[in-house]
Amino acid sequence: MKKRRVDFIFLFIMLVSSYLFFFTDLSKEWKIALVTLYAVLIFISIYSLMLENRTPHSTLLWMYVLFFFPVVGYIFYLYSGQLYLKGYLFKSKRMNNRETLKRMTEKEKEAKIDLSSLSPHQRSFAEYSERVSFTKVNNGTKARVLKNGQETFSEITASLKNAKHFIHMEYYMIHSDKLGKEIMSLLIEKAKEGVEVRFTFDTVGSISLSGSDVKELRDSGVKVYAFSPIKSGFFNQKFNFRNHRKIIVIDGEVGFVGGLNIGMEYLGENKEIGFWRDTHLKLVGESVQTLHAVFLFDWEYVSGENLIIEERYTKTVSTSGDGFTQIIATGPDTHENMSEYYYAMIACATKSIWISTPYLVPNETIRTALRVAAKKGIDVRIMVPEINDGFLTQYATRSYFGELIRSGIEIYSYQKGFMHQKIVIIDDDFASVGTANMDMRSFHLNFEVNAFLMNSKAIQDLIKHFEEDMEDSELIKPVAFYKRGLIERSKESFARLFSGIL
Description:
The protein is an alpha/beta fold. It has 3 domains: 2-81, no CATH class; 89-117 and 140-322, 2-Layer Sandwich (Endonuclease, Chain A), CATH 3.30.870; 338-501, 2-Layer Sandwich (Endonuclease, Chain A). The chain is built from 21 helices and 17 strands. Strands 9-16-15-14-10-11-12-17 form an 8-stranded mixed sheet, sandwiched between helices. The protein has a 7-stranded mixed sheet with strand order 1-8-6-5-2-3-4, sandwiched between helices. Strands 7-13 form a two-stranded parallel ribbon. It is globular, with a radius of gyration of 24 Å. It starts with a helix and ends in a 6-residue tail after the last helix.
C-alpha cells in the first residue's frame, strides 16, 4: 500500500509539473528544473518496474510507454500494467478461501472417489486439479447443457420459482431491461414468500443497473451487495479486478454456471448485436456444493457475512451422476489462473482439441501448447465470432491467426451472430464450460469459475452443438488470410499492443 501512495504522489507531481511547464510563464531555469524532476520520476518508475522481474518483452513495452507517452503513459501504466497488485489486494481473501477449502477437503478424504475408471489423460488432469485447487472431482452430479438464452433463462426462471429455502446469485452483468426486471421481480416475490435471497453483482459489469431497482430489491428483503465499487477501489486499483462469475445456487440442490449474463441481448433481442450464441450449464448434485462455496467466499468478501460455517449452506446433496464433474474457481483470490487449467487440458489431449471463445488473446504458454498439439497430428479447431463487440478485442484476436494457422490449426469464424460461449472439448470425453475467456483479462484480472466434465453425457451435447456451430461458420483459409490488406494488418498489430490487458 505504501508503494501505491508513492505512485499517486508521483502522478500528482507529474500533472502539476506538466501544467506549470506548458501553461505558465516560468523562467527557463524553472522549466529545466521541472523537466529534470519529471525525468527523475520516470527513471525511478522504470527502475521499480525492472525490480518486478516481469518477462523481458513486457518490461521493455512498459518502459517504452513510460518514456514516449508523458503523463498519459504513466496513468495507463498505473491502471493497466501492474498486475502484481492482486498479490496483496486480495491476500486475506485468498488465504481464507484456501484454508477453508483445505478443511472441507480433509473432511471428504474418507469418501475419496475412485478415479480408476477415467482414461489416463482424464486422471492426470483430475489428480493435478484436485491437488492445486483443493476442490474435489465427484461422480455424484448430473450436468445439463443449456443452449442460448431462451433455454437458459426458461430453466433458470422455473428453478427460481421452485426455491423453498434460499436463492444465492452472483453475476458480472445484469441490466435494468425487460429480462433483468423479470428476474429481479421474481427475486422480490420469493423474498416476500420468506425465501432467503442474496444477490451480488459486479459494479463495472452492471453499471447500467439502476439504483431504483437495487433499492426495490433491498426494500423487499433481498440482501444486495455490489462487488468492488469504483469509488472505493480507484486509488488502490481494485476496480481493475472484476468479478466475471455467473452463479446461481438454489436450496443447495440446483446450480447454474456458464457464459450468459442477464440482459435482453443474451436473448438475441438487441438489434445492434443480433443473434447471441452462448452456453450455460445446469448442475444437480455434489458439484453444487463447490459452486456454492465459491459464492459464499465472495459473499463474505462483499458483505462480511460468514455463511460457510453453517451446515445448511454446505451440506452435500448427491445424485446418481452421469460422469465426473469438478468446479474450479480462479482469480486474484487464487494462486493459479485459468490458463494453467486450460494448458493442463490441452497438454493431455491425444486426438482432438476444440475451443470456442469470443476473445482469443492467448498467452505464450497456451499458444505453444496448441501449436505443439497440432504438429503432433491432433485435430485442433478454434471458433471465434466474425464480429466482436469491441475494436481492440476483434483485431487483437485476429492478430494470432497467422501463427496458429501455420501450425495446422483450423480457425473458424462464426457468422450467424455474436458467439459468446467459453467451451473447451478434449478427445470427445473431457470438457470445460464456464465464464473464463481465452484472454489475459480472464487469466490475470477477473474472478472466474468453470465446470470441468469427464465422461459426462453433457459432453456429447457440447460436441453436437460445436458441430452445428461449424455449419454457421467459415473456415479461415491460409491463402485468403495472408492476402489481407495492409490496413487490416495494421489494425491487428495496433490492437495486439494492448493484448496484455484484454
